[in-house]
Write a structure and sequence with these properties.
This protein has about 80 residues and is mostly helical. It contains three helices and no strands. It has a domain at about 40-85.
């Protein structure tokens, strides 16, 4: 099941706006707090995530066997680590 990049972008934008509102409302009387400057790194991360999502999807479509084997190997490695813990 592939996630729609537009839907993911919409959800992440909504979270960014909500985070900005919470940071601005929670600032109260503190004068050294700058809510909007804290949301800028979040917005940058969302932009990078959207680009990375498309790139990962393209890599999986180009090499489906390699992607399947890599996912299987990762699953085995995680399983071994969890069994030891």
């Amino acid at each position: 099941m592939a996630m729609d990049p537009a839907l993911l972008r919409k959800e992440l934008d909504a979270l960014t706006q909500e985070l900005g509102l919470l940071l601005r409302d929670g600032a109260g009387p503190r004068s050294d707090f700058d809510g909007p400057s804290l949301t800028e790194p979040v917005a940058a991360a969302i932009g990078a995530l959207g680009k990375a999502d498309v790139q990962v999807e393209r890599l999986i479509r180009d090499r489906p066997v390699t992607a399947t084997l890599a996912a299987f190997a990762l699953g085995v490695a995680v399983g071994v680590i969890l069994r030891r813990a």
